[in-house]
Amino acid sequence: MTNKKLYRSKTDRMIGGVCGGLGDYLGIDPVIFRFLFVVLLFGAEFGFLLYLLMWIIVPEEGKEYGMTSHNIGERVRDMGEDVQHAVSQPHPQAGMIIGGGLILVGGMLLISNLNFHWLRWLDFDFLWPVLLIIGGIVLLVRRTQD
Fold first, then answer.
1. Are the CB atoms for 79 and 85 separated by under 8 Å?
2. In a domain, 113, yes or no
3. Bridge partner residues of 60 (DSSP)
4. 143 Cβ neighbours under 8 A, 6+ residues apart
5. What is the pLDDT of residue 69?
6. Which domain holds residue 28?
7. β-pair partners for 13
8. Which end of the chain is more exposed for a tag (fewer CB within 10 A), N or C?
9. 78 close to 60: Cβ distance less than 8 angstroms
10. Residue 98's closest CA among 15, 28, 25?
């Protein structure tokens, strides 16, 4: 097994490079991570916080691991520049990813509000952990196969 480290991508990024870095690290298309973060953003309370923490904690490609007060200030300053760049020059797939995430979350909310007796098992408090566990298992299986 290689000693590969997780970094935020400089080249494959929409905002902070977190999803591009995760995709490179795990050998999975970053669009999957982007879609997952959009779904978590609108469907769970922790999606935005998770992305924000990874944006601050995970270093950008070419930079060293480690946290000092100077590094944190620099990373927060870089975050502002990343947001400004993302707003002025959006990624070509941004609309597709956000739209797909909104459709998925909206469809799940619609189905749960229809109150069909055969869909009573569909509960977000139950569904999110199950989806996260399945996603984690898929990522681990794919990682061990590489």
1. no
2. yes
3. 8
4. 26, 27
5. 57
6. 1-63+93-146
7. none
8. N
9. yes
10. 15
pLDDT at 66: 67
Closest of 56, 49, 44 to residue 18, by C-alpha? 56
Asked if 144 and 136 count as a contact pair (C-beta separation under 8 A), the reply is no
Q: Residue 43 is encoded by which pair of tokens? A: 């469907």
Find, among 42, 38, 78, the residue nearest to 58 by Cα. Answer: 78
Q: What is the pLDDT along the chain (146 residues), one digit of tens a residue?
A: 467 788 888 888 788 888 889 888 888 888 888 878 877 776 666 777 888 888 888 888 877 776 665 666 777 777 777 777 777 777 777 777 777 777 877 887 787 777 777 666 666 667 767 777 777 777 677 666 65
Tokens describing residue 25: 């690290």
Please indicate, yes or no, whether the overall pTM of this predicted structure exceeds 0.70: no
Residue 31 lies in a domain: yes
Domain for residue 82, yes or no?
no
Q: Report CA Rg, the chain.
A: 17
Whether residue 117 lies inside any domain: the answer is: yes
